[in-house]
Amino acid sequence: MQALLWMRARWIAATLTTVLLLSGCSAGSTATVGGEDALAVGFTAEPQNFDFTSTDGAAIPQALLYNVYEGLVKLDANGEIAPLLAESWTLSDDRTVYDFRLRTGVRFSNGAPFTAEDVKFSIERVQTDWTISLKSTMDVVDRVDVVSPSHARVVLREPSNSWLFAMTTRLGAMFDPSGVDDLANRPIGTGPYQVSDRRRGDSIVLSANSRYWGARPAYPTVVLKYYRDATALNNALLSNGIDVISGVTAPDSVPQFEADTRFDVLQGTTNGEVVLAFNGNRAPLDDVRVRRALTYAVDREALLAAAWGGRGNLIGSMVPPTDPWFEDHSGAYPHDPERAKQLLSEAGQQNLNLRLRVANLPYAISAAQVVASDLDRVGVNVTIEPLDFPAVWLQQVFTDHDYDLSIVQHVEPRDITTFGDPEYYWGYDSPRVRELLDRADTGTPEQQLADMREVAKTLSDDAAADWLFLFPNIIVAKKEVTGLVRNQVSESFDLTGLGRR
Amino acid sequence: MALALGRKVLVLVASVFVASLVVFAFLAVLPGDPAQVALGLNATPELLARTRAEFGLDRPLVTQYLDWMGGVLTGDFGTSYVTREAIGPQLLDRLGVTLWLVGAGMLVALLIAMPLGTIAAVRHRKPSGAAVSALSQLGVAVPAFLAGIILVQIFAVRLGWLPSGGWTPPVRDPVEWLRGLILPALSLGLVQGAVLTRYVRTAVLDVQSEDYIRTARSKGLRPYPALVRHGLRNAAVPVLTVLGLQLATLLVGAVVIERVFVLPGLGSMLLDAVAARDLLTVQGIVLVLVVAVLIVNFVVDALYTVLDPRLRRS
Fold it and tell me: Membrane-crossing residues (chain B) (predicted)?
């Protein structure tokens, strides 16, 4: 018995030693930062896995799109659609047939050649195998024909401007049929980088793809490091643990970087509209006078200063300045409490009580406090309820529509189209907006421009929501790093243009 | 002996079972749907239903629980909804990081508390002893995460001597591993050390007034040798009890420290899993933590008998 116990103890000790020595082997490790060829970039949201076909969220495409996966087209730094794996393309007169001439000599990181067969496979796979909701944008595809190995033809059911745009997002990523067995852990694309190491809870290591068709990247190794905590992210740059902060999430900390000669600070725009949503399915918010009153009542300039250090843009509708049809509607409802009170009394709504159910994220909570106090001044009593984001907010506000007012950031590109869906949690139903959105998608680019401008204007007139501000894109980088993109227009943190002084 | 051991094992098994049930029940009533979180905005009801079926969330709760428990008993913690990887190996990996952190924190605490507590007791009527007591009082009042933030500001940001966070596995690079472990271990250990100092002081004070110390002193031994030869072992018993309790606190404190220093331990894994409603992973982690605490208690019990021969007879 004694001997047995002893053996067991020794076995446990041996196991424990192994666990301890190997601990965090797949979990964590600091980057070999400062190495001649390595670049370390700090992020806040870590991808839970590598499969953006079945896991939603911004983190996976941010890391992989354009860097590991490439599409036929990409969105360049100015927000224009540019060639990538397609060298050129033509559109038929009825605007339904796209003919893509493919770049030749392209290989996937597993060695397989990239041909029109892969285009067919990848686009059709969105409809058959993807599960994230974004995939519905590809429903308009009727079929993909392989004309020759370097010529793919995509036939749409009806004209769609948003389809080609969607092809610049993760939806357009090109996959190899033999490389999709374990998308969650082993991504295989044609991009300049491939995933060479994964340290869960810590970092992702990208290394140069030796089979890449283009110029070799300036940094053969890029370590994407993840810091949930904003202070930890800032400290990592200050203590030389990383070279770039991909996006500052604590705006108060920006001045310390601006004052430091080691760093460059780039401030641009994102696609992230911070929206005060009015539940249009509920009285009294179904009354446009009430929505306008609430919009007049909120002092957005002061709100931006209080919530996000004055960094960001006032937009006044669901369009960021990088979209082609942007027009500034931020002056439509100047801060005017008297006007708000007057509108409320016209609508017969005195002593209103509203529930403001917000995501429990720093920007939303600070914004909610300003909104509540501004509305209080015009006689609207607001109760703030922070909800655990994403789980609880998604369930109760987004799915069950159980809210009067809510605040959350909408990050998807060109998500103005959500106002064309009466089932969406806005509870906004305008036949005019739906018609305009449809026409914009199927019409010529000129028509699209005109129609989309009118949609944005209509939303503002209807006070369909209150667009509090547009999230800024604040990048801090060591001076020697060049080629960072100021405005965040695509889903990707594009590493391909990086260089060094 | 065998009977006592058997009873302890039975208590252990029962505790694990109850803990697993509580964790499962709590997560079942928590608002938020793992399928919804995985699919994100705009998920259609059909897609949600399909994903829920894929995750096995459409089965009765009892079936879900029994399946999970059955797997755990055979060492299979299931596959995460979110990472699509087996949970068991990840747990082991993360546990290693947390154990290093807790172990190093404990070591720091002991290295502080043993000498300082003894000095404070022996010199309790002198200014130096009072100063140590006051210092430990201050240490108790500082939360570990604040200590961590201050240490990072000084040693990582200002001086640049040590990394501000991150983890290197010891087999990969032992020097980097040690450098990365110093600040987290200090943050965790300083506060616990301050608490422990006060217990050591009290224990040594009690021992000092015992007859056998007076006898030793009267034989001509100086205060410290008398204490070391006759008193420390006796003082160790109450200290050990506190140590056992503190280890459990350290495991929980490590959750916060892991966040501050971006360490991929159980704590950060737990926070991520809760946010993503990755229920299977949460259940697995909590179970591991419960078992760890129970094992610590078990070891402390065993150590009593090593330290105090009188306990062996009973």
Answer: 9-30, 99-122, 134-157, 177-196, 239-262, 282-307
Indicate the DSSP class of residue A185: T
Contact between residue A44 and residue A226 where contact means Cβ atoms under 8 Å apart: yes
CA–CA separation, A362 vs A306, rounded Å?
Answer: 11
Query: By the CB < 8 Å criterion, does A57 face chain B?
Result: yes
Q: Cα distance from B82 to chain A (closest Cα, Å)?
A: 6
Residue in A2, A8, A48 to test binding to B, most B beta-carbons within 10 Å? A48
B152, closest residue in chain A (CA to CA): A235
DSSP state of A280: T
Chain B residues close to A26, C-beta within 8 Å:
89-90, 93
- Helix residue spans in A182-287 (DSSP H): 230-238, 254-258
pLDDT-based confidence at B301, cuts 50/70/90? confident
CATH match for B92-311 among 3.20.20.140, 1.10.3720.10, 2.50.20.10, 1.10.287.1490: 1.10.3720.10
**Residue A248 near residue A229 (C-beta atoms within 8 A):** no
Q: Count CA atoms closer than 13 A to A279's CA, side-chain side.
A: 20
Confidence (pLDDT) at B267? 87
Residue B309 burial (10 A CB sphere; 0-12, 13-18, 19+): exposed
A143-178: pLDDT as tens digits:
999 999 999 999 999 999 999 999 999 999 999 999
pLDDT tens digits, residue range A211-262? Answer: 999 999 999 999 999 998 888 899 999 998 999 999 998 888 899 999 999 9
Residue A473 Ramachandran class (φ > 0 left, ψ -120 to 50 alpha, else beta): beta
Nearest to A27 among B44, B97, B164 (CB): B97
pTM here is: 0.84
Please calculate the CA angle A169-A59-A171 and round it to the nearest 5 degrees.
Answer: 20
Strands A481-482 and A86-91: unpaired
Please name which of A394, A48, A184 lies closest in space to residue B82, comparing C-alpha atoms: A48
Q: DSSP for A351-370?
A: SEEEEEEEESSHHHHHHHHH
d(CA B117, CA B106): 15
Give me the interface pTM, i.e. the ipTM: 0.76
SS (H, E, C) A423-467: CCCCCCCCHHHHHHHHHHHHCCHHHHHHHHHHHHHHHHHCCCEEE
Task: Write down the domain spans for chain B.
Answer: 2-87, 92-311
**Which ranges constitute the DSSP H helices of chain B?**
2-29, 34-39, 45-55, 61-73, 87-122, 127-141, 144-151, 174-208, 211-218, 223-226, 232-260, 266-275, 279-307, 310-313
Task: State the amino acid at position B86 in one-letter form.
Answer: A
Distance from CA of B169 to the nearest CA of A (A): 6
Mutate which of B41, B83, B270, B291 to disrupt the A interface (most A C-beta within 10 Å)?
A: B41
CB-nearest partner of B100 from A20, A30, A134: A20
